[in-house]
Amino acid sequence: ALKIYDKDYAIWGGAASAYRELGQSENSRVYYEEAADRVEEFVLVNPRDPWYKADLGDYLIQIGQVDRGFQLVDEALQMASAADVPEFQVLAGKLNEQIGNRATAIGLLISALEQGYSREELESSPLLKEVIQDEEYLRRADAIDTSDQ
Fold first, then answer.
1. CA 71: distance to chain centroid?
2. CA distance 142 to 146
3. Could you give the C-alpha distances from 22 to 19, 26, 30, 55, 64, in angstroms and in order?
């Protein structure tokens, strides 16, 4: 895909994620850096777009700029429309789980579920395969009444 169109930061981010899953950390880092550089241009042009900020935050966390990355993810969450908040909470939950903040991850994921995010979709994410087996997550997720969602 990059040989066809190398301007889209999401393609760089997707390739970086694929390299990460394959255990190719150096390639993954290079592609995340490129994705971050490309999406940062979008953030500069449109600083009120929460999606760009969230993606930049994600990529920065992947390359070790954790504090700045979470600052951007938090800003995106604050800027998000009510309908988009659960999706940003899931992203923030995944990122927190990835760096070992399990309790924070669970809190964010449960909040997203309480706001109507699909449990099936959430639990299908390979990045959440361990946290969704956590007893605290299961107890809290099972307690959510989804009959009216």
1. 13
2. 9
3. 5, 11, 14, 21, 19
Angle between helix 50-62 and 9-21 (nearest 10): 30
Predicted confidence pLDDT, tens digits, the chain (149 residues): 455 557 789 899 999 989 998 999 999 999 999 999 999 999 999 999 999 999 999 999 999 999 999 999 999 988 988 888 999 999 999 999 988 999 999 999 999 999 999 999 999 998 899 999 999 999 999 999 765 55
Is 106 exposed, middle or buried (CB count within 10 Å of its CB: 0-12, 13-18, 19+)? buried
Contact 126, 99 (CB under 8 A): no
Q: What is the C-alpha to C-alpha distance for residues 79 and 29, in angstroms, rounded to an integer?
A: 28
First to last CA, the chain: 38
Query: CA 90 to CA 25: how far, in whole Å?
Result: 24
